[in-house]
Design goal:
By secondary structure, the protein is mostly helical. 61% of the residues lie in helices and 4% in strands. The chain has a domain at 82-197. A 3-stranded mixed beta sheet has the order 1-3-2, with helices on one face.
C-alpha cells in the first residue's frame, strides 16, 4: 500500500476526477441501490433552490431590506468568546434533548450526553459526538467542542468562533446530539442483532443527523427565533453544494476553483472557507452523502405517510427506520413494509 501511494504521488495523474462510471459504482455498491448521477444532480439543484427560498423567508424576519446571505453573514458574528463556547454548547445540548423527549420523536430517549472540550485526538473537528459502541455497557456519550487555539491570530480565532454563533451552534447541536447522532446511537443499542447494531451506511448516518435539523424546524424548536431556522438553512446549503461539487468535480470537468465559486455563490462561505470545502471534493467524493441521505429519508417519510394513512406518526416512522440500524439507502423501503 505504501509503495502504491508513493508511486501515485510521484507519477500518478494529477486529475482527481473518478469519472461517471467509477463514482456511480462507488455510490451504488455502498448504498445497495442503482444510482443515476444525472437525476442526483437535478435533485441537488432543486434542493438548492428550495433551501434558498427558505433562507430568504427566514432572513426576511430579521431584515427584509437586505439579501439573505448578507443578513446571515452578519448574524454569525454574534457568538460567545472562547471561554463561553462550552457553556453555550451545554445549554443547547440540554434544550435539544428536552425538546426531542417532549415531542416524543425517537423510539428511545435514554442515555446521557456530556459536553466537554475536545481531547487532542479530536481537535481536528470543531464539534463532534463520541459515543460508546453498541456492544459496550451503556456509558455517557461526549459532545466534544473545540474552542480556537489561544496561539492563533485574532482573525483566525474569530472565523473559528463564528461556527459557535447563536445562529449556527443550535443547528450543529441538534445534528450532533438530539434528535441527531446521539439519539440515533442510543436507538442503535436497541436494534436487533449484531449486524444492525454495528454495520452502517455513512449516507444514512449523516443523512439522519441532517434530517434531524429540518425535522426540528418542522416541529417548532426555537420557533420564536428565526436564527435557528437560518442556521439550519445555512448548513443545508453548504451540504447540498457539497453534493453538486462532488458530481461536478468527478463527472463534469469542474476544477477546484469552479467548485469554490459555487460555494461562494450558493452559501455563506467565501474565500478560504469556500476553497477548503471545494478541495474536499477531490479526496472525499461521497461528501454529498449528507444531502443525499436526508432527501432519501424525507422521500421515504412521505411514502410511509401515504401507506399508513391515519396510522402515521413521526415516532412510528422513526422507530421503523431506526429498527434497521443504519441501513444502506436502498433498503429504507423495508422500514415501511415492516413498520
Amino acid at each position: 500500500l505504501v509503495a502504491h501511494v508513493s508511486e501515485a504521488a510521484s507519477s500518478g495523474s494529477p486529475d482527481a476526477a473518478l469519472g461517471s462510471a467509477a463514482l456511480t459504482a462507488l455510490l451504488s455498491t455502498a448504498e445497495a441501490t442503482d444510482v443515476d448521477l444525472g437525476k442526483l444532480a437535478v435533485q441537488a439543484d432543486a434542493e438548492r433552490d428550495r433551501l434558498t427560498e427558505r433562507l430568504t423567508e427566514s432572513c426576511a424576519a430579521v431584515d427584509a431590506s437586505r439579501p439573505a446571505l448578507d443578513v446571515a453573514r452578519e448574524l454569525v458574528k454574534d457568538h460567545p468568546d472562547s471561554a463561553g463556547v462550552l457553556t453555550a454548547a451545554r445549554d443547547w445540548t440540554a434544550r435539544a434533548i428536552d425538546f426531542t423527549r417532549e415531542r416524543d420523536l425517537m423510539p428511545v430517549n435514554d442515555g446521557v450526553c456530556l459536553v466537554g472540550e475536545a481531547p487532542e485526538s479530536r481537535r481536528w473537528a470543531m464539534a463532534m459526538i463520541s459515543t460508546n459502541a453498541p456492544a459496550e455497557p451503556d456509558a455517557p456519550s461526549w459532545y466534544w467542542i473545540t474552542p480556537p487555539d489561544p496561539s492563533w491570530p485574532a482573525a483566525q480565532a474569530e472565523e473559528w468562533l463564528e461556527v459557535f454563533s447563536a445562529t449556527t451552534l443550535p443547528a450543529i447541536t441538534v445534528h450532533e446530539v438530539a434528535p441527531g447522532h446521539f439519539s440515533h446511537h442510543q436507538a442503535l443499542r436497541h436494534a436487533a442483532g449484531d449486524v444492525r447494531r454495528t454495520l452502517f451506511s455513512d449516507a444514512f448516518v449523516e443523512g439522519w443527523a441532517h434530517y434531524a435539523e429540518e425535522l426540528s424546524v418542522e416541529e417548532g424548536f426555537l420557533a420564536d427565533d428565526p436564527r435557528f431556522a437560518i442556521g439550519v438553512w445555512l448548513e443545508a446549503l453548504v451540504r447540498v453544494t457539497r453534493l453538486a461539487c462532488a458530481l461536478g468535480v468527478h463527472t463534469a470537468g469542474w476544477t477546484v476553483d469552479d467548485a469554490a465559486a459555487r460555494f461562494a455563490t450558493d452559501t455563506h462561505l467565501t474565500g478560504e472557507a469556500a476553497l477548503s470545502e471545494a478541495r474536499r471534493a477531490t479526496f472525499d467524493p461521497t461528501y454529498g452523502r449528507y444531502t443525499w441521505g436526508k432527501l432519501e429519508i424525507m422521500r421515504r417519510r412521505e411514502q410511509a405517510r401515504a401507506a399508513w394513512g391515519a396510522g402515521f406518526t413521526l415516532k412510528r416512522f422513526h422507530s421503523a427506520l431506526l429498527a434497521l440500524g443504519s441501513p444502506p439507502l436502498g433498503l429504507l423501503g423495508t422500514a415501511i413494509e415492516r413498520g
